[in-house]
Amino acid sequence: MSTTATVLVLLLAALHFYILVLEMFLWTTPKARASFGTTEEFARQTKALAANQGLYNGFLAAGLVWGAVAADPVGFQAKVFFLVCVAVAGVYGAATASRKIVFVQTVPALITLGFVLAAR
User: Fold this and answer.
1) By the number of CB atoms within 10 A of the CB, which of 31, 49, 50, 64 ranks highest?
2) For residue 7, which of 64, 58, 88 has the smallest C-alpha distance?
């Protein structure tokens, strides 16, 4: 796979790891509340829910890293699977939570998927 595709996959993994940290550990902090547009009260009430969401973002990050380091054909298959998962999660998040998620999550996943497929 091309170096560019690998770097993009790892950057997307880093983004999802960052989201894990925000949702699991920093949810009630001013930084996380500003990132997600939540109030202090809402953040306090939804802390467990956010931690659960963060865990899922961690699984996406782990899958992307696995795909980036695994030998083909498994690496390629894992990259495609997890990039599609990220894109679908982004579409769902945009439809149900905030439209900006499509630009933060779906668009980067689809661009990266394009690079992964082109490198094949």
Assistant:
1) 64
2) 64
d(CA 56, CA 19): 10
pTM of the predicted model, to two decimals?
0.92
DSSP string, the chain: --HHHHHHHHHHHHHHHHHHHHHHTSTTSHHHHHHHT--HHHHHHTHHHHHHHHHHHHHHHHHHHHHHHSPTTHHHHHHHHHHHHHHHHHHHHHHHT-TTHIIIIIHHHHHHHHHHHHH-
